[in-house]
Amino acid sequence: MFYCLYSFLNDIIITQLNNNEQHQSVFILLSAFTLIEYALFTYVLFINIKKSIFRKLILIISPFFIIFSVFQFLKSTGNNIDSISITVEYILLIIYCLFYFFDELMEPNATFIYATYKFWILVAILIYSTGTFFLFLQSDDLTPEEWNKWSIINHLCTIVKTLFFSIAVVMKKEPQENHFFDVEADRLFESNYKP
Predict the structure, then answer these.
(1) Which domain holds residue 144?
(2) What is the pLDDT of residue 174?
């Protein structure tokens, strides 16, 4: 919830600053947003991943990413979006989402995966990261006119992300177990039935 509000306010402020051509302030806000988004999404993924090896990898990689992003911020001219940090962020988030889904595949569960709020949050992160990956990868090379033309991709992915976050918010925290496969006929195979 905090992320959606922060993202919305950040977009409004950036739009106003772009209209006033305050590119340095926009760059600072976008760079800060990259770090905050990474921290929030990584935290959500970290608390939902069960395998300790994946959790340790996240703990090892995260400080390097933060240092890398700060270094990119300091060495940049401050006129463009920091596409390298955003691209690396999305690669890491995609990998972390794969960790989560691998974790879920390895653990048998009586409920369907999509019946949990965690699934919808993580799918929102995955869709947003993969959907905008190439846009932000190429954003340094885009002119403002091209950015306006192609930014519809970012807007659509943001809408889908927010929609999936909304689904997660309205879902029950504890899904009911699925008894679809509990069939009375299975008991025939368990007993010593003789015709």
Answers:
(1) 2-175
(2) 65
